[in-house]
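Translate sequence into structure tokens.
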Amino acid sequence: MLDTNVEGVEQTVSTGRLPARGSVDAVVAEAYERNRGSSDGAVADYIPVLAEVDPELFGICVAEVDGAVHDAGDSTVEFSIQSISKAFVYALVCEEFGHAEVGERVGVNNTGLAFNSVVAIELNDGHPMNPMVNAGAIATTALMPGTTSAEKWEHIRTGLSAFAGRNLELDGVVYRSEAETNQRNQAIARLLQSYGRITEDPLEIVDIYTRQCALRVSAHDLAVMGATLADGGVNPVTRERVVSAEVCRDTLAVLATNGLYERSGEWLFEIGLPGKSGVAGGIVTIAPGKGAIGTFSPRLDRAGNSVRGQRATAYLSRTLGLNIFASSSAGNANNEEQP
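Result follows.
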């Protein structure tokens, strides 16, 4: 971890606003219309049940920090959250243990390797590099409070439900399908145990992790969950505080650098926002202080990211002015205001 030496210094934030609600509705509808005809990509098939999903499904939702929600298409169709769960479980663990300890135990740096890489663990003496790859996510799940697997699982389920503002349920079909094919994650967990990074039964931890990935959400849910991170940890719909503002900051920083795995640099370059994808076709993207975008479309590119979801998010980022790196000259703006 960098020695930044800013303990005790008050955090100052800079946020903006989205356009008027009617304008956001129109932009979301346009993002849907522009991309719904695309047939690029293919549904995931390495988890058997995911290969059976309707590839034509496509939903978009934008949730604002003031509670306004804008939906288009199949935004309420449920699917398994998959790897997107990593971001919110990480936030819950950070809330429990704090910035420094989780940063030390799980890491925050990009591996530059595949999300399920075993090599990355060996190259770093058994230390997970970040919580968005499988090794770091499994280590993060192991840190969840609870003396039993059932207690840890319930803490995850209720925590992610608080982010969504409704009770999330397990997709038993997806869970069983993944549990039958998760041997690589079991191997990763055993390797972490051999390095002392997991002290519990590694197979029980993988089972909990498999369950968290099988929780059912919609694009609407993802937008609300993301907007909770955008609003300093307060759910914009229920107004319940889920995590602290400091935890949101840390989570978004990790997502910005690692949320799209080895494509994270490209994502940040093109979209300009922290985000997280899942192989069921979901993507959540967060604009700090403004809101979040949730998309769902099952056809994926070769990196495992939803094709229509990426394109819709790029359009929304540009048209709604969400890119955190975008700016215009103050001098030019002043000149435009003069007669």
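Note: The mean pLDDT is 86.
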